[in-house]
Amino acid sequence: MSKHTIPTVKLLIDGQFIESTTSEWRDVVNPATQEVLARVPFATADEMARAVAGAKAAFATWRKTPIGARARVFLKYQQLIRENMAELAALLTAEQGKTLADAEGDIFRGLEVVEYAAGIGQLQMGELANNVANGVDTYTLLQPLGVCAGITPFNFPAMIPLWMFPMAIACGNTFVLKPSEQDPMVTMRLAELALQAGIPAGVLNVVHGGEAVVNAICDHPDIKAVSFVGSSRVGSHVYQRATQAGKRAQCMMGAKNHAVVLPDANRQQTLDNLAGAAFGAAGQRCMALSVLVLVGAARDWLPELVARAQTLTLNAGAEAGADIGPLISPAAKARVVKLIGQGVEEGATLLLDGRAPTVAGYQDGNFVGPTVFADVTSAMRIYTEEIFGPVLCVMQAATLQEAIAIVNANPNGNGVALFTQSGAAARSFQEEVDVGQIGINVPIPVPVPLFSFTGSRASKLGDLGPYGKQVLSFYTQTKTITTRWFDDAASAGKVNTTISLK
């Protein structure tokens, strides 16, 4: 395909999909074939400013849109996403690499948040206390902030944008979204469907770019709140820069998620869950299970886990029977391969080596097969770094308390799982482990939108999580109003110079 026939990804500014005038472009590449699917622009400073200006102008009317009308937009939007699920999944797989089944899961977990946003009429209610003093009532209003922004990663190009803009917009805000420049096409299709569902011009805007656009989002005085999901390095930068500029910020960042297995766990189900959570999506999940802690006699299960990993099929995500697709880019593959080599150099035992897989028909794909290290220590780089590939580090502990100490000593606090049939062990674990999302016999405990994503410690900056009840607080300002209406017939009293209401 010549450069003249490669489609260009558009910007969405003030209700119009426009061609960027930038001189800086990046190719969107199929990670299984290296085929260039599209070219994405890095928006100019003027285009970024226009997107924010459009959002600011739209806020004046959108904030006054009746709450029922906002809800009906998202009822329509969830219907459109369902109707276009197959097209969205195919687009996502082509540019991101994950299997079609996993792509549908990506979209569906975002769809759940859209459904939650449709219930905004029940969610965005304040409180009232009658007669808090003589003739005095106090009540609260949850009002929108204004223009909000989101910066999303490559690994969930449908789910994470849908974590952000539906809830922000349902609350009455307007939004500027910057998706990953590596796979923006499915995000743009979701934006098209959002406009089709009835989101007015300027309420949702999409810009593309790199560091300059990220910094512009952090700095722009008309943006009131920033939501971010991505690496710890970028997330720390976004949080510091945005908060110094006076904005609210929530940043979901790096992880090193552990699974602790007790010998009493259901053996076959646990092994299946471990293999799926460690190697699914080629390990490119912030909630991927990347460290396994085998307690006591559970160490004897390791050969069976390796055997299960060897049964998983590497292939292009669109191929039938594929369990694991490619990594997002050649650079990502090179980094994972380098880290595997460093693990060997540091003395970990390489039980399964996925560095040189053969995938028939896709010799140019960014494939790394399931990789398993035993005898891993907390000082090794394969343990201290988030590998973001299909690499499982296996450690051992004599007791549950020792396993909990391993988990809590790691600086990250995104997700953790315990596999056991003991209720007492499970209760002790969930009380003592210092991690945001905890699964008991659930390997990837991402909560449904009725609850909030609650990563902690180095995995999160900001007090409030994306979606769920917490995000209502993030995307709204609470106003507290105290009222007294005087009866004309009441006699006047003396002047009250105290702070009390009487």
UniProtKB/TrEMBL annotation:
GO molecular function: any one? methylmalonate-semialdehyde dehydrogenase (acylating, NAD) activity
SUPFAM superfamilies from the UniProt entry: ALDH-like
Q: What class of enzyme is it?
A: oxidoreductase
GO:BP terms for this protein?
A: L-valine catabolic process; thymine catabolic process
Listed InterPro entries: Ald_DH/histidinol_DH (IPR016161), Ald_DH_C (IPR016163), Ald_DH_CS_CYS (IPR016160), Ald_DH_N (IPR016162), Aldehyde_DH_dom (IPR015590), MeMal-semiAld_DH (IPR010061)
Highest taxon, organism lineage: Bacteria
Question: Keyword Oxidoreductase on this protein?
Answer: yes
> EC number(s) on record?
1.2.1.27
Similarity comment: family membership:
Belongs to the aldehyde dehydrogenase family.
Q: What is this protein called?
A: methylmalonate-semialdehyde dehydrogenase (CoA acylating)
User: Which species expresses this protein natively?
Assistant: Rugamonas rubra
